[in-house]
Design a protein that fits this description.
The chain is of the alpha+beta class and 277 residues long. It is 33% helix and 26% strand. The protein folds into 2 domains: 141 residues, ATP-grasp fold, A domain (Dna Ligase, domain 1, 2-Layer Sandwich); 126 residues, 2-Layer Sandwich (D-amino Acid Aminotransferase, Chain A, domain 1), CATH 3.30.470.
Length: 277
């Protein structure tokens, strides 16, 4: 049974235990079970992650099957004490996007595992009064090759106002969350009515890489495209509806959501509570 635990990769919909699979995986699992638009994926417990890091053959074989099923994936950290109301770990642990093939997926899992021991993550754990040892779980999820992507707060994180605050740009959401662009910003009333739109400086987009060994690349955005808002009324209404669905699923807690649009469809990529200051 112990060896089986090291090579059993769990569908996200079944990743119910936060203390095993981490907040990110467990919250996505809840979303899938409740019918929210989450890309398919799997959760790797810390034991499986450690087995992959140690090149354990059965664990690598299980990961190979997942890679073949999902195609191009995003590999994200999901430590058990990550993505809570008190500790988000945003930017402290690694995410690897546009990973193709089982060899690259295994390497990405090892890199995410190692990121729990980086100085920034260790310092953050100490600041938050958490255990110094990181038990790293991982989410492997089909990549949405986004036309537009970004973040949505269901309460204004600065003023506390009961409104949606959205930041978005062209391409993958990494351009927004990593601060590579000044994104378009929006304030939307509960119910979907736009309150404010501010045009950003979206001169580059992050896209899946066009050559082997380059998972993602920064590409110039056409000036005409950069000069218009990337989200229209239809997208803002869809995001407001997603926020309402998250209220129904997760309760009254305010939400910090990462999203992506592709071919008119909206996808929920991550959800965490808005971290308290």
């Amino acid at each position: 049974m112990a060896d089986e635990d090291r090579c059993t990769i769990t569908p996200l919909a079944e990743a119910v235990e936060v203390e095993v699979f981490g907040g990110k995986a467990a919250q996505l699992g809840v979303a899938i079970r409740c019918g929210l638009p989450v890309p398919p994926g799997y959760a790797l417990s810390p034991r499986v992650v450690e087995a992959v890091a140690e090149d354990h053959p059965p664990a690598l074989a299980a990961l190979r099957r997942v890679s073949a099923e999902l195609g191009i994936v995003a590999v994200r950290s999901s430590a058990p004490d990550e993505d809570s109301e008190d500790a988000s770990f945003a930017g402290a642990h690694l995410s690897v996007l546009a990973v193709s093939g089982h060899v690259a997926t295994a390497a990405a899992v090892r890199d995410v595992h190692a990121s729990g021991r980086l100085a920034g993550a260790v310092s953050y754990r100490a600041t938050m009064g958490l255990d110094a040892t990181c038990r790293m779980a991982v989410v492997v999820q089909r990549l949405v090759d986004a036309e537009m992507a970004g973040v949505l707060f269901t309460r204004n994180p600065v003023t506390g106002a009961d409104e949606r605050v959205i930041e978005a740009s062209w391409g993958l959401g990494e351009a927004v969350v990593a601060g590579l662009v000044t994104p378009d910003s929006y304030r939307v009333a509960r119910g979907g009515a736009p309150l404010e739109r501010r045009l950003g400086d979206k001169d580059i987009a992050v896209r899946p890489g066009s050559s082997p060994g380059v998972p993602t690349e920064e590409v110039p955005v056409d000036p005409e495209l950069a000069a218009v808002h990337c989200l229209g009324d239809a997208e803002l209404a869809a995001l407001d509806a997603l926020a309402t669905m998250c209220d129904d699923v997760y309760g009254a807690t305010d939400h910090d959501i990462e999203f992506a649009f592709r071919d008119g469809d909206l996808f929920l990529l991550q959800r965490r509570p808005i971290t308290r200051a």
